[in-house]
Amino acid sequence: MEILVCVKQVPDTAEIKVDSEVNKVDISGAPKILNPFDANAVEAAIQLKEVHGGTVTALTMGTEQAKAVLKEAISVGADRAVLLDDPLFQDSDTFATSSILASAIKKLGNFDLIICGKQAIDGDSGQVGSQIAEHLGIAQITLVSKIEVKDKVIVVNRQHDDGHEVIQADLPVVCTVVNTINTPRYATVRSKLAANRAPIEVLKAADLPDLNLGIIGSEGSPLKTIEIYAPPKKAPGVRIKEETAAESGVKLAKMLIANKVI
């Protein structure tokens, strides 16, 4: 079974700072990590390989620094790692990014299954996986919490607010997975050392002959970021605590009337 998993290097959102003087988000000091949902995607791919055999290819787009997340994928069981690194790719929005990834996937081979995390924690758009499927013209199943493969058919649980749906589709398929699908394994010291020595293939825009250069990068992306800022702090609430619940209710009603809420 040939599986490709898309991964992304993102800033650790727990370490992002807000400059209160200018009300701007500062990510310069935040360490770069593997997107947590993509760690679940990698684990799902490795588990399927352990059952069905085959290979797992990890693919990411970024700079030289992004090799770290590919090495992390190799350290837990991925067989091949590919980095898309070209100045022409910089500042691509989700549509441009998915176009680049889809072109690379076409070049790299015929995959039975493509797995992505449901979203990246830096942008939270949750669009790239679905867009890859559209570019490739294959089926997609989002918010997957369980995967089983039987012959050339995939059966998954799709998570939603009231439980889950059981969906079946013929391969090839793109799946985006949620974090309840598994618990990512830890790499060993030996596997980390081996991953550091593993070759990482680098592809440029020129290596993707079917890629439309007019729709990538900052110039080609249809989505433009005008401004990034931290949300304003909310005003403190008012606590009403009278001797009895009835008295508290009366006071609340008077306040709402005074402020023309009711």
Automatic annotation (TrEMBL):
Residues 22-212 form the Electron transfer flavoprotein alpha/beta-subunit N-terminal domain. GO terms for molecular function: electron transfer activity. Pfam families: ETF. It comes from the Bacteria. This is Electron transfer flavoprotein small subunit.
